[in-house]
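Annex B. Sample input.
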Amino acid sequence: MTEQTKTRFPAPLYAAAGAGDLAYQQLRKLPAVIDELSVRVNEFSGKAAASLRAANLQAGELRTKAGTADFDKLRYNATNNAVALAQEATERALAVYTALVARGERVVGTGVLGAADVVNADMVTTEEPKAVEAGAAASEPKPRKQATKAAPAPAKAAPAKRDTTK
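Annex B, continued. Sample output.
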Protein backbone atom coordinates (compact mmCIF):
# COMPACT_ATOMS: atom_id res chain seq x y z
CA MET A 1 0.00 0.00 0.00
CA THR A 2 1.36 3.42 -0.89
CA GLU A 3 1.38 6.43 1.37
CA GLN A 4 -1.03 9.22 0.62
CA THR A 5 0.53 12.49 -0.43
CA LYS A 6 -0.91 15.79 0.62
CA THR A 7 -2.45 17.39 -2.46
CA ARG A 8 -3.20 21.10 -2.58
CA PHE A 9 -5.84 22.26 -5.01
CA PRO A 10 -5.61 25.65 -6.74
CA ALA A 11 -6.97 28.63 -4.80
CA PRO A 12 -9.82 29.29 -7.31
CA LEU A 13 -11.18 25.80 -6.61
CA TYR A 14 -11.19 26.53 -2.91
CA ALA A 15 -12.84 29.91 -3.58
CA ALA A 16 -15.58 28.21 -5.63
CA ALA A 17 -16.15 25.63 -2.89
CA GLY A 18 -16.27 28.40 -0.28
CA ALA A 19 -18.73 30.41 -2.39
CA GLY A 20 -20.93 27.35 -2.79
CA ASP A 21 -20.92 26.71 0.94
CA LEU A 22 -21.67 30.37 1.66
CA ALA A 23 -24.56 30.35 -0.84
CA TYR A 24 -25.96 27.21 0.79
CA GLN A 25 -25.82 28.79 4.25
CA GLN A 26 -27.51 31.98 2.98
CA LEU A 27 -30.27 30.02 1.24
CA ARG A 28 -31.04 28.29 4.52
CA LYS A 29 -31.74 31.76 6.03
CA LEU A 30 -34.03 32.80 3.15
CA PRO A 31 -37.45 32.09 4.81
CA ALA A 32 -36.59 34.31 7.79
CA VAL A 33 -35.37 37.11 5.49
CA ILE A 34 -38.59 36.97 3.47
CA ASP A 35 -40.68 37.31 6.62
CA GLU A 36 -38.63 40.30 7.79
CA LEU A 37 -38.86 42.05 4.41
CA SER A 38 -42.64 41.62 4.22
CA VAL A 39 -42.98 43.35 7.62
CA ARG A 40 -40.73 46.21 6.44
CA VAL A 41 -42.74 46.66 3.22
CA ASN A 42 -45.96 46.98 5.20
CA GLU A 43 -44.39 49.61 7.46
CA PHE A 44 -42.97 51.55 4.50
CA SER A 45 -46.24 51.75 2.57
CA GLY A 46 -47.76 53.97 5.30
CA LYS A 47 -44.83 56.40 5.23
CA ALA A 48 -44.52 56.56 1.44
CA ALA A 49 -46.96 59.45 0.84
CA ALA A 50 -45.22 61.78 3.31
CA SER A 51 -41.81 60.88 1.87
CA LEU A 52 -43.00 61.62 -1.66
CA ARG A 53 -44.07 65.15 -0.76
CA ALA A 54 -40.71 65.87 0.90
CA ALA A 55 -38.84 64.48 -2.11
CA ASN A 56 -40.73 66.79 -4.49
CA LEU A 57 -39.78 69.86 -2.43
CA GLN A 58 -36.13 68.79 -2.32
CA ALA A 59 -36.09 68.17 -6.09
CA GLY A 60 -37.18 71.77 -6.70
CA GLU A 61 -34.33 73.08 -4.52
CA LEU A 62 -31.81 70.91 -6.34
CA ARG A 63 -32.95 72.24 -9.74
CA THR A 64 -32.14 75.79 -8.70
CA LYS A 65 -28.72 74.76 -7.32
CA ALA A 66 -27.86 72.87 -10.55
CA GLY A 67 -28.05 76.10 -12.55
CA THR A 68 -25.24 77.67 -10.52
CA ALA A 69 -22.95 74.62 -10.16
CA ASP A 70 -19.23 74.54 -11.10
CA PHE A 71 -19.12 71.46 -13.33
CA ASP A 72 -15.32 71.38 -13.68
CA LYS A 73 -14.92 71.16 -9.91
CA LEU A 74 -17.65 68.51 -9.73
CA ARG A 75 -15.95 66.48 -12.48
CA TYR A 76 -12.59 66.67 -10.65
CA ASN A 77 -14.15 65.57 -7.35
CA ALA A 78 -16.04 62.76 -9.05
CA THR A 79 -12.84 61.45 -10.68
CA ASN A 80 -10.94 61.48 -7.39
CA ASN A 81 -13.80 59.80 -5.57
CA ALA A 82 -14.12 57.15 -8.28
CA VAL A 83 -10.41 56.26 -8.01
CA ALA A 84 -10.59 56.04 -4.22
CA LEU A 85 -13.72 53.90 -4.35
CA ALA A 86 -12.16 51.60 -6.97
CA GLN A 87 -9.12 51.03 -4.74
CA GLU A 88 -11.35 50.34 -1.76
CA ALA A 89 -13.48 47.94 -3.81
CA THR A 90 -10.34 46.10 -4.93
CA GLU A 91 -9.18 45.70 -1.34
CA ARG A 92 -12.60 44.47 -0.25
CA ALA A 93 -12.78 42.03 -3.18
CA LEU A 94 -9.37 40.63 -2.25
CA ALA A 95 -10.47 40.22 1.37
CA VAL A 96 -13.67 38.44 0.28
CA TYR A 97 -11.72 36.19 -2.10
CA THR A 98 -9.25 35.29 0.66
CA ALA A 99 -12.11 34.47 3.02
CA LEU A 100 -13.76 32.29 0.35
CA VAL A 101 -10.49 30.42 -0.23
CA ALA A 102 -10.15 29.75 3.50
CA ARG A 103 -13.76 28.60 3.71
CA GLY A 104 -13.29 26.37 0.65
CA GLU A 105 -10.16 24.80 2.14
CA ARG A 106 -12.20 23.82 5.19
CA VAL A 107 -15.06 22.44 3.06
CA VAL A 108 -12.80 20.54 0.64
CA GLY A 109 -10.48 19.41 3.43
CA THR A 110 -13.23 17.70 5.38
CA GLY A 111 -14.54 16.10 2.19
CA VAL A 112 -11.08 14.83 1.21
CA LEU A 113 -10.48 13.33 4.65
CA GLY A 114 -13.86 11.59 4.56
CA ALA A 115 -13.20 10.23 1.08
CA ALA A 116 -9.74 9.04 2.12
CA ASP A 117 -11.25 7.10 5.04
CA VAL A 118 -13.73 5.42 2.68
CA VAL A 119 -10.98 4.54 0.19
CA ASN A 120 -8.73 3.15 2.93
CA ALA A 121 -11.55 1.04 4.34
CA ASP A 122 -12.39 -0.20 0.85
CA MET A 123 -8.75 -1.14 0.17
CA VAL A 124 -8.67 -3.32 3.28
CA THR A 125 -11.72 -5.30 2.16
CA THR A 126 -10.81 -5.81 -1.53
CA GLU A 127 -8.84 -8.63 -3.21
CA GLU A 128 -5.09 -8.92 -3.36
CA PRO A 129 -3.50 -6.67 -6.00
CA LYS A 130 -1.98 -9.67 -7.87
CA ALA A 131 -5.42 -10.98 -8.85
CA VAL A 132 -6.37 -7.56 -10.12
CA GLU A 133 -3.08 -7.17 -12.03
CA ALA A 134 -3.48 -10.53 -13.81
CA GLY A 135 -6.92 -9.56 -15.08
CA ALA A 136 -5.68 -6.14 -16.17
CA ALA A 137 -2.70 -7.59 -18.05
CA ALA A 138 -4.97 -9.88 -20.09
CA SER A 139 -7.17 -6.98 -21.16
CA GLU A 140 -4.31 -4.65 -22.14
CA PRO A 141 -3.83 -4.15 -25.89
CA LYS A 142 -0.58 -5.54 -27.31
CA PRO A 143 1.88 -2.97 -28.63
CA ARG A 144 2.21 -2.72 -32.41
CA LYS A 145 5.49 -3.68 -34.06
CA GLN A 146 7.32 -0.89 -35.77
CA ALA A 147 8.38 -1.19 -39.40
CA THR A 148 11.93 0.01 -38.74
CA LYS A 149 14.90 -2.28 -39.29
CA ALA A 150 16.24 -3.70 -36.03
CA ALA A 151 19.96 -3.75 -35.24
CA PRO A 152 21.56 -7.23 -35.51
CA ALA A 153 21.94 -9.11 -32.26
CA PRO A 154 25.49 -9.37 -30.90
CA ALA A 155 27.21 -12.74 -31.50
CA LYS A 156 27.12 -15.13 -28.57
CA ALA A 157 30.38 -16.30 -27.12
CA ALA A 158 30.99 -20.06 -27.43
CA PRO A 159 30.68 -21.91 -24.16
CA ALA A 160 33.96 -22.83 -22.54
CA LYS A 161 34.96 -26.50 -22.92
CA ARG A 162 35.12 -28.63 -19.84
CA ASP A 163 38.30 -30.10 -18.66
CA THR A 164 37.72 -33.88 -18.71
CA THR A 165 41.25 -34.96 -17.64
CA LYS A 166 40.49 -35.25 -14.02
